[in-house]
Amino acid sequence: xxxxxxxxxxxxxxxxxxxxxxxxxxxxxxxxxxxxxxxxxxxxxxxxxxxxxxxxxxxxxxxxxxxxxxxxxxxxxxxxxxxxxxxxxxxxxxxxxxxxxxxxxxxxxxxxxxxxxxxxxxxxxxxxxxxxxxxxxxxxxxxxxxxxxxxxxxxxxxxxxxxxxxxxxxxxxxxxxxxxxxxxxxxxxxxxx
Length: 193
Description:
Structural class: alpha/beta
Shape: globular
Number of domains: 1
Number of strands: 6
Number of helices: 7
Mean pLDDT: 91
């Protein structure tokens, strides 16, 4: 089974994340996409970042109706600060029969050469890169790399920062979430303070 790993804080998960994940799993050779929820580093206190398990719960709710989309809390078990290479090693140990690849935005590809052990990642894993709107054209040393696949996914300009501010300012932005995700956020009064 070929699985794309979609990393993020998902604070909160929204329709932009869902559109990208669903598009990539439906229009590529991937069998599934797994949302990898990045934990709050104990060294960084961010008051706007929901507890790890609330963010995991929100993503679980978001993907429940989509059999090709899954979640994993693998990074919750790893020491912090964590690096992608460590997550890849850990997830392969748990699922040795799966073929894992990374899903990332073009903006992350531009700084990929700064990642810990990026050469090892590129040697052993394929990268599926979705487009982002940028003020300048982004070309990287990886543009023609055989393991880097540019995916013609929809460009979604929704930021979690914008969403959190809108909720705090009591704006009706339900349309930006799967309905059950919004209901959970609203019932728990997340992001209102």
